[in-house]
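User: Can you help me understand a structure? I only have the sequence.
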Amino acid sequence: MQFIDVTTCKPATQLLIDVWACNATGAYSGVSAAGEGGLKTSWLRGVQPTDKDGVVDFDTLFPGHYQGRANHQHVIAHVGAKQLPNNTYSGGHVAHLSQLFFDQDLVQRVEATTPYNKNTIPHTMNLADQFTGYSATAAHDPFPNYIMLGKDLSAGIFMWAQLGINTSSNWDAYAPVASYVGPDGAKDNPSFAAQSYVVGFPPPTHG
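Assistant: Let's start by predicting it. Here is the structure, written out as tokens:
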């Protein structure tokens, strides 16, 4: 992904980009709720700083799906965050948060493979996804470009997207965390239940 500062039309450098997604059967790591991965897990989560070209490059798995949601990849851009020695981060503010979706034909091909086809949760199509605030508009394209790296899916997929952000924006109120890592390990956020109502109402400009 390449991040461009919309106020300068130049690469947005010195950002920390935080990504996460559910696995093939619809579970998230780092979440203690029933059916999720638990606080001691961190798979399919990652953080990278943008380089001089505003680019980050993540190696991950194609996201699965869960109740009411189409396959999607979460993306948050932090401005002013400090990377800590244990590879976590703190401080700064959220200048962009969004979700990337995928061409429906590609999703159907992936969902037909193992272990995705072992997921018993009904599959939600892109057009029926409940997060309409992230839907495609003339000003926002949440569908990455992609090419196949071989003749079939087992060889992998290369995807890329360019995202314009305003680094002075602050969307912290839309980005509550379910859990966090402190000096004594991972903990649930005791305020998450009260804060999480905003998750269903994404920023009107897609962050």
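Now, to help you interpret it: The first strand starts at residue 2 and ends at 5. The mean pLDDT is 90. Let me know which part you'd like to focus on.
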